[in-house]
Amino acid sequence: MPKFLRIGVHQSNVSGYTSKAWCVRRVGSAIFLKWGAVDVHGVGNGRKVYWTLPPRVKTIRCGTEQRAMDYAKAAIARRRNHRYEPLSGSIAIRRRPAGRDAELKQALATILIVDIVRSTEKAAKLGDARWTKVMSHYYAAVRKELKTSRGKEIVTTGDGVLATFKAPAAGISCATAIREAVRTLGLEIRVGLHAGEYKVSGGEMVGLAFHIGTRVAAKARAGEVLVSSAVKDLLKTQSAIRFRDHGVHQLKGVPERWRLYRVEH
Questions:
Q1: CB 147 within 8 A of CB 165
Q2: Tens digits of per-residue pLDDT, 142-164?
Q3: What is the pLDDT of residues 209-254, one digit of tens each?
Q4: Integer Cα distance of 84 and 82 in angstroms
Q5: What DSSP character marks residue 10?
Q6: Rounded to whole angstroms, how far apart are CA atoms 96 and 98?
Q7: What domain range is 39 assigned to?
Q8: 85 and 111 fall within a common domain
Q9: What angle, 0 to 180 degrees and rounded to 10, lies between the N-to-C axes of helices 65-81 and 128-148?
């Protein structure tokens, strides 16, 4: 089973991210994926890697062995493109003392979700080599704006980025700056922002707020920055930021309906 590791920063580095591991395995026409946040201890041959929480798993039925082989090859290439290193050792599940889960730390933040529009279509048109170069410039541009706005990168999701901000105005400013920066690469993005509480256990961030942010982003069209009513309510005194009502929406898998707003240019 090929395994990949990306070592991140758990402290307050503004461009930090959580250490994460991926496992990709093919059996016949099926692909088995396993991924999640990890803790890394030591270096070199003495390095040990532990899942911070039980990893997420997914099985993909490809229909034929050739399709499965192609999928696995693409999945492995994607990990390498996203600065993951091959991991030769095992990933252990650490035994936690009883009551550890009760010690979850709770925090409040503005959550930003960035996603490239029609990325699969663009990747197919450009080819692997050119697309890899474009994605390298894309992540460099995103991380530059995150650092400028004091945002914290949490994880990359394929061609997307999830980050958090202490102030909603900083998140919106970063979103619009990223949108303009990546247009020079011929890319259009959609962005969603939501403000809410989440919990931190080890290196893993969990909470409904992340799901809401993802669903808000999914409602945006190319070039749009959408925010939830929770973000707008926090910015009532920020007259410099203008919004247009985007209507009330049912967000997939999220309780209740949410009013969304589009950030005006």
A1: no
A2: 999 999 999 988 777 667 788 89
A3: 888 888 899 899 999 999 999 999 888 766 688 889 998 988 877 7
A4: 6
A5: -
A6: 6
A7: 3-95
A8: no
A9: 40
